[in-house]
From TrEMBL:
Protein name: RING-type E3 ubiquitin transferase
Catalytic activity reported: S-ubiquitinyl-[E2 ubiquitin-conjugating enzyme]-L-cysteine + [acceptor protein]-L-lysine = [E2 ubiquitin-conjugating enzyme]-L-cysteine + N(6)-ubiquitinyl-[acceptor protein]-L-lysine
Taxonomic source organism: Bison bison bison
Residues forming coiled coils: 249-323
GO molecular function terms listed in the Swiss-Prot or TrEMBL record: ubiquitin protein ligase activity; zinc ion binding
SMART domains (UniProt xref): BBC, BBOX, IG_FLMN, RING
InterPro entries: Bbox_C, Filamin/ABP280_repeat-like, Filamin/ABP280_rpt, Ig-like_fold, Ig_E-set, TRIM45/56/19-like, Znf-RING_euk, Znf_B-box
Broad EC category: transferase
Length: 580
């Protein structure tokens, strides 16, 4: 039994109570915002008034796609195959979605009429939400009734005339107020080629509705059938396409929901991170301000300390100067104005005073200096949990007090790193205790003064600097160490670079018997042997030195340079033993 399907078009049925047939999106033009007038359906399924579409600025589709100006080989072949008389196709952009609409040869008026929108406009007009309807016959008076047979809206005068005509006497007339609950009250769709005929048939070959005159004319031999007979087949194909499209709608809606959710999450995260940044910044600013206040207080304390020290020194020197002047003036007056007896009488007091004044020790230089500096890049520890920088320094490095330390000061090996330490001190001989001084080191070969060795100076941030370099060839080198462009103590000095350290070809063992796994032919440079034909040394046997040693040269120090001279003693293969 065939499934009963609801017809898609050409029916008149009532809507359920409380249901509306359309809304402003279905009845109002998106451009003029008024009720649709001759609405046209665009390929993107948006509906726009015919007059509104005609006002849009058209463009050449060929120009947009590069057909007229394309200089590629593919475009050239296309232009050769295209007839010369073919004009570029005209297109417009959908005012809703900006989709490109290629206009047919007839222009905007050749686009498909949206009859469904026209029906919705009529329904809205019946509900009093739109402008009043006018008679389909006289186009002058307002509509009062509708002929259900002709599907024409008629005024009172035309309705009476409609009833008087013999052909339409028995047509069913319905008041407009009784049609407000209907879902379809549209006018009959007439054939564009034969305006007097209604489209009731469908041409399968041309895939479009036709009228009776079309069937006997242009579509004479085409398979045609009534629309009511073919609607189910074509409706099913549309429903199939709809079933394939709906999952995409759901997927897109879900994707948009996810994007919306992600966007909301991003906004929340941005707010949270912004709050963290503000909290961090405010805390850091407070820490910096607190550190600034500490530095300023420290600077003020330094000022007071230095000023008090200078004032004390000034008072002492002024008192000493006054005592000196008193002694000098009195003595000069005595010597110039006093008699011999007066001089002899006061000589003892004067000599005692002057002798005492001459023995007073004083410094002719200020007890403190003006050396106060600020190092903005020096770490100053934590303040409120934040790392802060900047320290006040009252010490100044004195190159003459700086010293050099290290075992590799005067010796090095070719192609092996050599290093030493520069210890910076101030004028009093105390360690600077901080870094940041300009330490420059230059290593120059005496025989190649134009080829200095690359040096690395690492600031240990504690007043010491680690200097390393790698000489490429043996010989004598000159090392210059300068601080503030002045030589330090012991600079410049010479370094003797010897040939590369010779590694041991043998093994460092307790005895040959143990290191060789009991091999009789294994020998050792210590010269020891064992009974039973063993050519190498063994514990407690003849020639064993009694301590670990190298099998190749006999040295006792594990970290030492090998002194074995190949070819002058036993063959090397016999000197080298096997380590277990």
């Amino acid at each position: 039994m065939a499934e009963k399907r609801r017809p898609l078009l050409g029916f008149v049925g009532k809507l359920p109570s409380g249901t509306t047939a359309g809304n402003s999106g279905k009845t109002h033009c998106p451009l003029c915002m008024g009720l649709f007038k001759a609405p046209r359906l665009l390929p993107c399924l948006h509906t726009v008034c015919t007059t509104c579409l005609e006002q849009l600025e058209p463009f050449s589709v060929v120009d947009i796609r590069g057909g007229e100006s394309d200089t590629s080989s593919e475009g050239s072949v296309f232009q050769e195959l295209k007839p010369r008389a073919l004009q570029p196709q005209i297109g417009i952009l959908c005012p809703v979605c900006d989709a490109q609409v290629d206009l047919p040869m007839g222009g905007v008026k050749a686009l498909t009429i949206d009859h469904l929108a026209m029906n919705d406009v009529m329904l809205e007009s019946l509900r009093g939400e739109g402008q009043g309807l006018v008679c389909d016959l006289c186009s002058d008076r307002e509509v009062e009734k509708r002929c259900q047979t002709c599907k024409a809206n008629l005024c009172r005068f035309c309705c009476q005339a409609h009833r008087r005509q013999k052909k339409t006497t028995y047509h069913t007339m319905v008041d407009l107020k009784d049609l407000k609950g209907y879902s379809q009250i549209g006018k009959p769709i007439l054939c564009p080629a034969h305006p007097a005929e209604e489209l009731r048939l469908f041409c399968e070959l041309c895939d479009r509705p036709v009228c009776r005159d079309c069937v006997v004319g242009e579509h004479r031999e085409h398979p045609c059938d009534f629309t009511s007979n073919v609607i189910h087949k074509h409706g099913d194909s549309v429903r199939e396409l709809l079933r394939g499209t709906q999952p995409h709608v759901e997927a897109l809606e879900e994707a948009l929901a996810q994007i919306k959710g992600t966007n909301s999450a991003v906004q929340e995260r941005v707010k949270a991170v912004a709050a963290d940044i503000r909290t961090f910044s405010e805390g850091y600013i407070k820490a910096i301000e607190e550190h600034r206040d500490k530095l300023l207080k420290q600077l003020e304390d330094i000022r007071v300390q230095k000023e008090n020290s200078l004032q004390l020194q000034k008072a002492q020197l002024e008192q000493l100067l006054a005592d000196m002047r008193t002694g000098v003036e009195f003595t000069e007056h005595l010597l110039t104005s006093g008699s011999d007896l007066e001089i002899l009488i006061t000589k003892g007091v004067v000599v005692e005073r002057l002798t005492k004044l001459n023995k007073v020790e004083y410094s002719a230089h200020p007890g403190v200096n003006e050396k106060i500096s600020f190092s903005p890049k020096e770490k100053a520890g934590l303040c409120r949990g934040y790392e802060v920088y900047g320290a006040i320094n009252t010490k100044e490095v004195d190159p003459a007090k700086c010293v050099l330390q290290g075992e590799d000061l005067h010796r090095a090996r070719e192609k092996q790193p050599a290093s030493f330490i520069v210890l910076c001190k101030d004028a009093t001989g105390e360690s600077m205790g901080r870094g940041g001084d300009n330490v420059q080191v230059t290593v120059i070969p005496n025989d190649k003064k134009d080829s200095p060795v690359k040096t690395m100076v690492h600031d240990n941030k504690d007043g010491t600097y680690y200097v390393s370099y790698t000489p490429k060839e043996p010989g004598t080198y000159t090392v210059l160490v300068c601080v503030k462009e002045q030589h330090v103590q012991g600079s410049p000095f010479t370094v003797t670079v010897r040939k590369r350290h010779r590694s041991h070809p043998g093994v460092f063992h307790c005895c040959t018997f143990c290191s060789s796994g009991g091999q009789k032919t294994a020998r050792c440079a210590c010269g020891g042997t064992m009974p039973g034909g063993y050519l190498g040394c063994g514990h407690g046997h003849k020639g064993h030195p009694g301590r670990p040693h190298w099998s190749c040269c006999g040295k006792f120090a594990e970290k030492s340079e090998c002194t074995w001279a190949g070819g002058q003693s036993a063959p090397r293969s016999l000197l080298r033993t096997v380590a277990l």
